[in-house]
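DM from R.C. (forwarded with permission)

"hey, sorry to bug you on a friday — could you get me a structure for this? deadline for the figure draft is monday and I only need the backbone to look sensible"
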Amino acid sequence: MHRSCSQLRPETGFTLFELVLVVMISSIIAGMLNSFIRRPMEAYRDMERRATLVDVAETALRRMARDVRASLPNSLRVSGDKRSLEILHLADGARYREDPGTNPTTSEDHTNPNDWLSFSGDTQFNILGRLSHLDPNYGQALTAGTRLAIYNTSTNVYTDAATSANPGVITPAATTITVTDDVDEDKLTLSSSFEFLLRSPRQKVYVIDSPVSYICDLTGETITRYGSYNINATQPTDPGVAPLSTAASALVTNRVAACEFLYDPGTPSRAGLLTIALTLSEAGEQIRLFQQVHVNNTP
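My reply, with the result:
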C-alpha cells in the first residue's frame, strides 16, 4: 500500500517555545539598541535646545545694544532693581549753523541771522548740509513728539523735557519742528521760540523721536521694548501704569530666567559702559550671556 504525498510532506511552522524564544531575543536586542540610540538622541535634542537659547539671547542682546548706541548722549538710565533700562532714541543728528561761514556763491549765502542759532531764543536755524537719516517732507511738521536737543550732559534732560524747561537742553513736547529746503542746507523751524541752554563745542544738534524702555519681567519671563510714549521725569518701570500701559510694545524675548542692567556712566574723557546679563531657560536647560556696550556720552 502506498502512502499519499500529503503524508510524505514534512511538517512546517514553529512551536510555541520557538515563538517565545524569538520574542525574548528580539526584546533583548531592542533594549540594547534603545540604550545605544536614546542617549545620542537626547544629547542631540539638548544641544539643539541650547543652540536655540543662545541664538534667541544673542538676538535680544544685539537689539538692545543697537538702540543704546542710537541714544542721546547721557540719556541712559537704569532702575534701582536693575531690571529696567530707558534711553532717548535718536532719529537723526547734524551740526547746526552758528555763523555765515564761507559760501562759494550768492545763492548759498547764509548771512541772514535767521540761518544761525543764536542761543537767545530761536524759532529757526540751519544745519550744515542735510539730515542724513530722516527723509522729511519739506514744509510739513515732523511726527508729533519729535524734539531737538543740544549739549545734554546728564539725565536731568528727562526733567527738562517733562517740565518744558525754557531755556533748556531739549525742546518742549508741544513745540513742533518743520524742515524746509534752504538751497544747500536744511532749515529747522520751531513752532515757538526756544532758548537752548548750552552751546555744543562741536555744534551738534540731535533729533529725538521717542523715549525707549526695556523692561525685564521675571514673572512673565519676558523682556519687552516700549516706545512712543511721553517723556517722564521719573523712570517708568511698571508696564501696567501710564505711560507704558499706553505705549507701543514689542516682545524682545521670552524664557527669561534672570536679567540685569549694569551701567557705568563714565567721565567726560571716557565712554560709559553698559553691561547686560541675560539668562534664558527651557526644559531644564539654562544659558547665561553677557553683552557690554560702549556708550558715547560726548554731547
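R.C.: lifesaver. Residues 29 and 35 are 10 Å apart (CA to CA).
me: no worries. The first strand starts at residue 77 and ends at 78.
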